[in-house]
Write a structure and sequence with these properties.
- The complex is a heterodimer of chains A (114) and B (112).
- With 114 residues, chain A is mainly β.
- Helix content of chain A is 0%, strand content 54%.
- In chain A, strand 4 and strand 5 form a beta hairpin.
- The N and C termini of chain A lie far apart (36 Å).
- Chain B has 112 residues and is mainly β.
- In chain B, strands 2, 4, 5, 9, 10 and 11 form a six-stranded mixed sheet that branches. In chain B, strands 1-3-8-7-6 form a five-stranded antiparallel sheet, with no helix packed on it.
- In chain B, a hairpin with a 2-residue loop joins strand 6 (56-59) and strand 7 (62-67).
- The N and C termini of chain B lie far apart (41 Å).
- Classes of the chains: A mainly beta (114), B mainly beta (112).
- The A-B interface holds A 4, 31, 33, 42-45, 48, 50, 55-56, 91, 93, 95, 97, 100-108, 110 and B 31-32, 34, 36, 41-46, 49, 51, 89, 93, 97-105.
C-alpha cells in the first residue's frame, strides 16, 4: 500500500487566496483525521471523519476552514480566505475504526501564506 | 479536557546511552497510548501502541510502559544510535472518542 497520500507537498500563496489541501487515506481505512502542526502550538486535531461523516470539528479554528470527505478515498481541507497565521504543516491521517486504531500519517503539506 | 505533557522538550546524548523519555496525561480514562517518531520535514510514524489494559510494549530496542493510574508513560531506548535522532511524540486516545491528544514532543539528538 502507498500509505496516506497528501497533495500538494508544499504550497505558497498570498493572503486572501483560497487554498485546498488534498488527502487520500489508506484503502480500507474508515477514519480520517486532519491535523495542523506549528512550533507554537504543536500538533492539533482540526477535524475527523468516520465512514465519511464529520464527527468532531471542534478543532477547526474559524469559519474560513472547511473540510469535506465526498467518498471513502478522498478528503479536502479548504481555507478561504487564507491568512499568514494559517502557515503551518497540515497532516492527514487514517485508521480503522475497530481494533488498535493505530493512525497512519501522510507526509504533510507545508503551507506558507505570505 | 485531556492534556499531555512531555519532558524533556529536548535531549542530547552520546551514542550508546540508554535513555528514557517521559509522557504524562491528566485524564486517566484512556483507551490507549501511542508513541510516534517524527523526522524533520516528515510525517509521524507509529512506534508502539499500548492498550489501557497493558503495562508495556516492546519493539526491538524500544520499550514503552504505561501506568494509567498515575497518568504516566515512558519510552525507553536502549543503546541509542545516531539514527534514533528525531522528535518523539506520545499521544493519548480517550475512551470517549476516536481522537488523539498529542504531547509537545521530545527532540532527541544522539551524537556519534
Amino acid at each position: 500500500d502507498a500509505g496516506v497520500i497528501q497533495s500538494p507537498r508544499h504550497e505558497v500563496t498570498e493572503m486572501g487566496q483560497e487554498v485546498t489541501l488534498r488527502c487520500k487515506p489508506i484503502s480500507g481505512h474508515n477514519s480520517l483525521f486532519w491535523y495542523r502542526q506549528t512550533m507554537m502550538r504543536g500538533l492539533e486535531l482540526l477535524i475527523y471523519f468516520n465512514n465519511n461523516v464529520p464527527i468532531d470539528d471542534s478543532g477547526m479554528p474559524e469559519d474560513r476552514f472547511s473540510a469535506k470527505m465526498p467518498n471513502a478515498s478522498f478528503s479536502t481541507l479548504k481555507i478561504q480566505p487564507s491568512e499568514p497565521r494559517d502557515s503551518a504543516v497540515y497532516f492527514c491521517a487514517s485508521s480503522l475504526l475497530s481494533g488498535s486504531n493505530t493512525q497512519y500519517f501522510g507526509p504533510g503539506t507545508r503551507l506558507t501564506v505570505l | 479536557k485531556q492534556e499531555v505533557t512531555q519532558i524533556p522538550a529536548a535531549l542530547s546524548v552520546p551514542e550508546g546511552e540508554n535513555l528514557v523519555l517521559n509522557c504524562s496525561f491528566t485524564d486517566s480514562a484512556i483507551y490507549n497510548l501511542q508513541w510516534f517518531r517524527q523526522d524533520p520535514g516528515k510525517g509521524l510514524t507509529s512506534l508502539l501502541l499500548i492498550q489501557s489494559s497493558q503495562r508495556e510494549q516492546t519493539s526491538g530496542r524500544l520499550n514503552a510502559s504505561l501506568d494509567k493510574s498515575s497518568g504516566r508513560s515512558t519510552l525507553y531506548i536502549a543503546a541509542s544510535q545516531p539514527g534514533d535522532s528525531a522528535t518523539y511524540l506520545c499521544a493519548v486516545k480517550n475512551n470517549a472518542g476516536n481522537m488523539l491528544t498529542f504531547g509537545g514532543g521530545t527532540r532527541l539528538m544522539v551524537k556519534p
